[in-house]
Amino acid sequence: MEQILCVSMYGFQSHSMKKVVFLILICFTSLLSAQKKAYGDGEWFKFRIHYGPITAGYATLKVEDVVLNNKAVFHVQGEGHTTGITKLLFNVEDYYESYIDKELDIPHRFVRKIDEGGYTKDLVIDFDYDSQQAIITDNKHNTVVKEPILPDVQDMVSSFYYLRNHLDTENIKQGDMIDMNMFFDRGNYKFRLKFLGRETLKTTFGKVPTMIFRPYVESGRVFEEEESLTVWVTDDANKMPIVIKADLVVGSLKATLTQFKGLTHQFKIIPQ
């Protein structure tokens, strides 16, 4: 009886130990996965948009945990508006949303509702990955159309958050290019990001190590050339934008980070 009991206890202990080890491994793996995320629920940024000392407007980005169609997603909301004399001359009220899959880092829904000096759009784009289609609801014109999407597609908001999670900043070299598939409004196009190098910026928060990137954007009516946009992001695990500079036909416009909260990682600042 004792032998049977000992064997049973040994079997129970062995089985239980395997369970414990398995659970520890699962928790450890989950912890590592969580640490790799550059952002999370509660993150919030505020930017001042300005021509030199003149404030033209403000923009915010915030991240929240929500559920969309029974999927756990990050709901990213971006808002931008002009202020003061700029508002009188050219009123801008822009609103963007992206619902990003927490596990796959792909968008399930994108919302673009803008009013830029009377030019308006009100679009909702749902991404159906089973049929590889984007379902575009145009609330302004009361239409619904479908367009094919490319593999690993991102929208104009989710692309930034995707890059924050997936950029290999340790091995990246000056001049390296990162290519992505992006769906914007009603079409697919290639989005390219060029790494320009590293720089320590003097900011209101202190001296901040940054990485410099240049997105390739459409030339013509607004931008002087394809390489007119430059972005500085923190050279730490957050990879948050510090400064965005656009060289326009009428001068240089900047968006500078002024406030933030809810960072997932420690903000790296060089001591004075």
Task: Describe this protein's structure.
Helix content is 18%, strand content 51%. A 15-stranded mixed sheet has the order 8-7-6-5-4-3-2-1-15-14-13-12-11-10-9. It has a single domain, classed as YmcC-like fold, CATH 2.40.360. The protein is of the alpha+beta class and 272 residues long. The model is unreliable at 1-35 and 219-225 (pLDDT under 50). α3 (158-166) links the parallel β9 and β10.
Number of domains: 1
Helix content: 10-25%
**CATH class wording:** Mainly Beta
How are the strands of the biggest sheet laid out side by side?
Answer: 8-7-6-5-4-3-2-1-15-14-13-12-11-10-9
Question: Low-confidence parts lasting 5 or more residues at pLDDT below 50?
Answer: 1-35, 219-225
Give me the strand/helix succession: HEEEHEEEEEEHEEEEEE
Fill in the CATH topology: YmcC-like fold
Mean pLDDT, all residues: 86
Structural class: alpha+beta
Report Rg: 23 Å
Q: Alpha-carbon distance between the termini?
A: 73 Å
Biggest β-sheet strands, sense, barrel: 15 strands, mixed
Using the alpha-carbon principal axes, give the shape: globular
Number of helices: 3
Number of separate strands: 15
User: What CATH architecture label applies?
Assistant: Beta Barrel
Key phrases:
272 residues, alpha+beta, YmcC-like fold, 15-stranded mixed β-sheet, disordered N terminus
Structure at a glance:
This protein has helices at residues 2-36, 84-89, 158-166; strands at residues 44-51, 54-68, 71-82, 92-101, 107-116, 119-128, 133-138, 143-148, 153-154, 177-184, 187-203, 206-215, 229-234, 241-248, 251-261.
